[in-house]
Prior knowledge:
Structural class of chain A: alpha/beta
Mean pLDDT of chain A: 93
Shape of chain A: elongated
Distance between the termini of chain A: 71 Å
Oligomer: homodimer
Radius of gyration of chain A: 26 Å
Amino acid sequence: MSNSDHRPLTLRDVSEASGVSEMTVSRVLRNRGDVSDATRAKVLASAKELGYVPNKIAGALASSRVNLVAVIIPSMSNMVFPEVMTGITQILEETDLQPVVGLTDYTREKEEKVLYEMLSWRPSGVIIAGLEHSDAARAMLRASGIPVVEIMDVDGTPVDSVVGISHRRAGEKMAKAILKGGYRKIGFMGTTMPRDHRARKRFEGFTEVLAKAGVEIAEREFYSGGSALVKGREMTQALLERDPELDFLYYSNDMIGAGGLLWLLEHGYDIPNQIGLAGFNGLNLLKGLPRELATMDACRLEIGRRAAEIIANRVQDGADQSPVRIALEPMISYGDTLRRP
Amino acid sequence: MSNSDHRPLTLRDVSEASGVSEMTVSRVLRNRGDVSDATRAKVLASAKELGYVPNKIAGALASSRVNLVAVIIPSMSNMVFPEVMTGITQILEETDLQPVVGLTDYTREKEEKVLYEMLSWRPSGVIIAGLEHSDAARAMLRASGIPVVEIMDVDGTPVDSVVGISHRRAGEKMAKAILKGGYRKIGFMGTTMPRDHRARKRFEGFTEVLAKAGVEIAEREFYSGGSALVKGREMTQALLERDPELDFLYYSNDMIGAGGLLWLLEHGYDIPNQIGLAGFNGLNLLKGLPRELATMDACRLEIGRRAAEIIANRVQDGADQSPVRIALEPMISYGDTLRRP
DNA sequence: CATTGCAATGTTCGCGGTAACATCCAGATC
DNA sequence: GATCTGGATGTTACCGCGAACATTGCAATG
C-alpha cells in the first residue's frame, strides 16, 4: 500500500506488479484500446494497491495533448469573476478539459507574465478577460496556435474569438433609462480606473448619451481599496454634501451602490422619487437588502459558459477553427431604486 | 515574429536561429550556468523574435521539478476561500512556486477526483482544506511523498502538517461570550451541513458550553442554496414567529447574520438589548452595514500565509521535513450586536 | 490441418527538455 | 614553452509515457 522507499512510482512498477507490459498498463489506465477484462482487473488492482497516480507530465509530453484550459482574469475577489468561472466550470466538467486560473491584478505586466507562464504548460486553449493586452501578449496568443477566447467585453478587436457584452452600450442603456425616469442632476461614483477598461467604456457610453440630452454629470467621486460598502456610504455623503440637489446616483458597481443605498435610507431619503440610484453587475449576493438596487446584469455566467463551449468545440479534431463573436445583451433591472418610464 | 507554418517551436528552433547548442539556449532561458553576455544577448534576441515560450512539460519531465502547489478547497464563492488564496498567493509570489486551485464542492468524491488529477501533475506540495478525507485520498497524500498542509481546522489528525483554528473552540468561545452577555434563550441558524465539518464542530463546541451552563438551544433553522442575505431574513422571521422570546441569534456565517440583522432593524428590534446576534467569519465585505455584526475572525489570510510558508520552506533542498502544527486563535469581535460582559 | 482474422499484448522510438559529464580554449603561472 | 585553470560551450543519456507498428495466440474457416 505504501511506497516507503520513496522512489516515485511509474508505469513500470505497476507493470511489474501485475505481470504485463507497461503499454498494457497504460491502456488500462486510459481506457483505450482492447484489453481483456481479466488483465484490466489485475492491473487496476495492482495500481490501486501501489497507490499509483499516472504522471501527466510524461503523458502530455508523449502525446502532445494537454487537457488544460488557461483562464486569465484580473481578480477573484470581486464576485464577478467567480461567477464567470462557475460558467466555465459547468461546461468544461462535461468534457475532459480542466480550467487553470491565472490572476493579473488588473496590470498588463502581470498579465503578460501569467500568460507566458500558462502557455509554457501548453494548454489546449486560453480564455482571457478583456481586449486590451500588451503587444507581446497578443503576439504570444497568436503564436500559440491554440484557440483563444477573449471575454467580458466586445468593444474592440479580438485576437481570435470573443464573448461578452458591450460596456459602452451598457452605459448608454443605463443613461437612457435614467433620463426616461426623469432624473436630471446626476452624480457618478466609481473606482479610480486606470486599467479597468470596461468601467471606462461604460462611463463613456453613459456620459455620451447624457450629453446628447444636454445633461452633464454634476458631481463625481472615485475610490480605490477598502470596504466597498463603507466607501459607498462615504462617497454618497460627500457627493450630497457638495450638491444636495442631486436626483440620481450612478455607481460603477453594486457593492458601493449598496453602501450608498443604506446611507440614503438611514438619512430618510425618499427613493426612488427624491433620489434614484443604480449600480452595475447584478450581484445576487445582494438580494435581500432593504430595497432592491437597480442594476444591470453583465451576463457573467453566460459569458463563462459560451467561452468554454467555444474552446470545447474547437479542441475536437476536425473542428471548425473560425473565430466566433458573441455579443450578449446586458439587461437592466429597475429594482426599487429607479423610477420606471 | 510569427510562427506561420505552425510547427510548435522548440529549443532547437532557437538554437538554430542563434547558432548555439540547445543546451546553451536552455541555460540562457533558465539563467543557469555560465554563459557569456554576448551569447546570452544573441539567444534572448532570437527567442524573442521567434516568440518562443519554453515547454515546461518537457522541462519538468527532464528535471523532475514542478513549480506547482496544489490548493484544494471546497468552493470559491463564499468569500472565505478567496481570502485564504490571497494569503497563499502573497507568500508564493516571493518564490517561484505557483498555486493551482482545485474545487471539491464539499464532496468527498470530488475531492478524491480533484486530488488525483492534481497529483498527476506531480506538484511540489499540496494545501488542502479540512482534515476529513476519504481513505483513498489520505493514502494518495501520503504516497505522494510531497509536503502536505491541511488547513482551516486543527481538530483532528493531520496527514502531515496542519494550520488552522479550532472550530470547536471557536464555538465554545462564542457560547461563553453570549452567556456572559446575559443571554439565555438562544436560536441557531446555519446551513444544512452534511459535509461542512467545521460548521459542525463549531456547533458542537457551542452547544456543549451552553449545556454546561444549563442552557439549551431553543430554536434552530437550516438552509441551503439561495441568496444568503434573503435566507437570513427568512429564517430569522421564522424563528421569531415560532418563539418571540428568543434573546439571541447565532448564525453560522456572517452573510445570513447580515440578513437577520437587516430584518431585525426593519422590525424595530432593540439590538443588542432586546436581542443580540452574532455570525462567524469576519467578512470585511460586510463592514458598512447599519450595525456592525458580532463575529469571529477565522484568521483566513493568516492561515493561507502560514500554509504557503510551510510548503515554501519544505521545498528547499535539505530542509527540515518534520510536520508542523499551527493552531491560530480565533478572535471574537463584539461589534454592535453582542452585549459586552 | 494449414490459413486467415482479429483481439490481446508487446516493442521501438521519440516527445522537448535537463543533468551530468566531456571538451575546448584563452589567459595565468612557473 | 609546457602546464594548469576555469569559464564557455557541446554531447550523451535519460525523464515517463503514448503513438505506431509488430507480434502472438487462438477460434473460425474451408
